[in-house]
Inverse folding.
């Protein structure tokens, strides 16, 4: 269906939610004209970073493809996922960049200018972007290491292509870095902080199992965080650090560094699917252990400052997952409610079957799944009073899910009790 047909099918769903979700679900392609028009622009282009988040192997070393694009009508920010069979095209027509489908032009689009810090290099010539990247208009995402030890032991999560992407990165990119030194990230964050409008630090890593420099994972993380904190004068702003679930005593060590929020990812709800899709985490800590550690962390950081990501849609991966969208939505929303009731804020990104992952070639869930999940998520956040915006997840920088667009258009109406903004799950999947 065209975007206009989808909007007619789901008439009470914000148009931007439909465009963003389906573009993330199916990907986009760039016309030759669009590639030529962007190649000399000062914008952030795709590279072999920690995940590909594409539907197909990209040629980012030979072509300059923007990492994201924005709808000119309302500034919705959308990750440009490479999808060769996608019905959606970014084109250059009559001096304008447009997002179009089979029926014609849908929206005019634009590309954010790259921040000044992204063009800088360290004293040895290594580009800042070897260890960090801009993510939307006002945030920087830095990585301590691009290596996940679970890949080393062949226990990686099935949706993930971090190991395969690292090999492409080492083969194809100048100045590729596997593990950043703490002072490198401190220098990048300090430079980003000097730019007008900057709001978010985000720090992540692959899972660390083996010791690093003789240190355990938590000691290693704390070294980084203390060095970064010193470099930015303790001004963490609206920031978070991503780490695998940890016992409460280790969580307290992280809290003492000054970082204001954590993400500890469960990835998928329910023990059966967790054991299949996340075999390394299941082996190391187990479903019950991971869930308990995520909830216990709220006692240290406070409500809403512990987040956990879900790869939305991976619970429909075959042959193990749900076959019916409503069943998948019901299961995942039950998990969201359990977590919110315990002060944990779940967050989502639209699953993409990355070509270097074990789930490569899987078909995406239908659009209806994501719409229903978004509706249910919004209702639950309002029920448990998790307001928006929250730590490091705003419209202008969170480009891999449409939840911020749901908030932007519907939060006020729901909060004021306006009827007709959220329909039943059964009605949704019928297009009512």
């Amino acid at each position: 269906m065209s975007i206009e047909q989808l909007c007619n099918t789901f008439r009470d769903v914000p148009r931007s939610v439909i465009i963003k979700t389906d573009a993330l679900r199916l990907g986009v392609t760039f016309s030759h004209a669009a590639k030529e028009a962007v190649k000399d622009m000062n914008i952030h282009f795709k590279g072999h970073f920690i995940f590909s988040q594409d539907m197909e192997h990209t040629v980012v070393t030979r072509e300059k493809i923007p990492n994201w694009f924005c709808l000119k009508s309302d500034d919705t920010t959308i990750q440009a996922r490479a999808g060769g069979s996608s019905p959606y095209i970014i084109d250059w027509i009559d001096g304008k960049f447009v997002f179009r489908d089979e029926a014609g032009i849908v929206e005019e689009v634009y590309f954010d200018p790259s921040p000044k810090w992204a063009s800088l290099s360290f004293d040895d010539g290594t580009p800042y972007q070897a260890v960090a990247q801009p993510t939307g208009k006002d945030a920087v995402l830095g990585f301590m290491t691009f290596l996940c030890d679970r890949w080393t032991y062949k226990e990686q999560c099935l949706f993930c292509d971090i190991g395969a992407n690292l090999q492409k990165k080492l083969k194809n990119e100048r100045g590729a870095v596997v593990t950043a030194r703490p002072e490198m990230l401190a220098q990048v964050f300090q430079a980003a902080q000097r730019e007008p409008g900057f709001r978010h630090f985000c720090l992540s890593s692959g899972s660390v199992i083996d010791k690093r420099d003789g240190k355990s994972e938590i000691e290693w993380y704390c070294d980084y965080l203390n060095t970064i904190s010193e470099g930015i004068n303790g001004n963490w702003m609206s920031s978070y650090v991503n780490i695998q679930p940890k016992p409460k005593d280790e969580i307290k060590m992280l809290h003492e560094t000054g970082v204001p929020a954590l993400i500890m990812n469960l990835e998928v709800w329910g023990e059966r699917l967790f054991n299949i899709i996340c075999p390394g985490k299941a082996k190391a800590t187990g479903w019950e252990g991971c869930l308990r550690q995520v909830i216990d962390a709220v006692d240290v950081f406070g409500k809403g400052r512990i987040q956990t990501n879900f790869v939305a849609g991976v619970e429909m991966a075959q042959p193990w997952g749900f076959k019916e969208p409503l069943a998948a939505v019901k299961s995942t929303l039950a998990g969201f409610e359990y977590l919110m009731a315990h002060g944990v804020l779940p967050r989502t990104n639209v699953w993409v079957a990355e070509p270097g992952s074990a789930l490569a070639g899987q078909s995406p869930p239908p659009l209806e799944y994501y719409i229903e999940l978004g509706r249910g998520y919004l209702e639950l956040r309002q029920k448990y009073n998790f307001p928006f915006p929250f730590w490091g997840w705003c419209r202008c920088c969170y480009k891999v899910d449409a939840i911020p667009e749901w908030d932007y258009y519907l939060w006020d109406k729901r909060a004021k009790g306006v009827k007709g903004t959220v329909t039943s799950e059964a009605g949704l999947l019928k297009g009512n």
